[in-house]
Design goal:
Layout (H helix, E strand, L loop, with lengths): L8 E8 L3 E7 L5 E7 L5 E6 L18 H10 L4 E5 L6 H4 L8 H18 L4 E7 L1 H9 L6 E5 L6 H12 L1 H17 L10 H4 L4 H8 L3 H5 L6 E6 L7 H10 L4 E5 L26 H10 L2
Parallel strand pairs: 4-5, 4-6, 6-7, 7-8, 8-9
Antiparallel strand pairs: 1-2, 2-3, 3-5
Helix pairs in contact: 3-4, 5-6
Length: 300
Amino acid sequence: MKKILFILSIFSINFCFAQFQEKEIEVNKYVHGTLSIPSEETETAALIIAGSGPTNRDGSNPMLPNHSLEMLAHGLAENNIASFRYDKRIFRLQELKLTEADLTFDDFIEDAITGIHYLKDSLKYKKIVVIGHSQGSLVGMIAAQDSASGFVSLAGPSEKMSTKIIEQVSNQSKAFGDTTRVHFQELQEKDTITKVNPFLMAIFRPSVQQFLKSWDKYEPKEELKKLDIPILIVNGTKDAQVNAKDAEDLKSVVSDAELLLLENMNHILKSEGETRKNEDEELVLHPKLIPALTKFIQEL
C-alpha cells in the first residue's frame, strides 16, 4: 500500500449534543467525513465503514434513508467512544474528476487505511477499532491489518462477492443465476464481459466491471484469518442480505473471535417488527447492538 499524505482541513462544529460534539472533516481530497467526539476525554476511537452501493457515511442511500451508521456513531459517543465515519469516493466523482470506471476496491481499502492513520497519527487516539458494515466488513478487515486494536464485522459476508451475488440472483431466478455465474467467469478469464444480459445490466454494466473484478479477488474468510487482534462478528437473524450462516462461517476460521447473533435484527441494524421510533420517526438500532459494541471496545 502506497504511502499516504495527509492534508487536514477541520471545519466548524455542525452539531452539539449534551454528551458529544460532531465536526465535519476533510482528511484528504478523497476522505471527507464526520468526527463524533464524546464530552469526556477518551483514548478510544472507531472507524465506521459503510456498505456497498450509494450508501453514505450515515448508512443511508436514496432508496433507504435509515441513518443507521449515524445512530451507531451517536450511540458510541454516548458511551465515551469517539468515531469517524466518511463518504466513499463515489459521492464526489465529479469534484475529483473521476468516473465510476476509475474506481477499484483497493481505493476503498486505501481510504479506510487513511481513516485509521488520521485517528491514530493525527488525532492521537491510542486505541482504534475498525467497524465495517456489509461490504465495509471486507474493506475493514483488510484495512485493520494496518495498526488497528480491534475489528467488528457488522453483517459481513463470509464468501467472495461473486459467490454471494450468484446466490442472491439464483434465489430469484435459477436461469439468471446461471447467467450471472457465466458473466463472472468471463470477467475473470477475459477481463471483460462481451455481451451483458440486459436483465443483469445493473450488476455488470461496463463501467463497474473492473471494480467487480478488483473486489472479487478478496475472500473474507481468508482476510479475516490475517488479523491478530480481537474480533467481534455480529449478524441479525432477520438479515435478508447477509444471513447468520455468514457470521458463523467467519467465526469458524478464527476460533477466538466473538460471535453475536441478534434476534430479529435486519441488515440495517434495526429490529424487524419493532414499533419504537426515534424523533425522526425512524426505527432505532437494535437495543442490544450498542451495549455489545461498547463492551467489546472497552475491553480491548
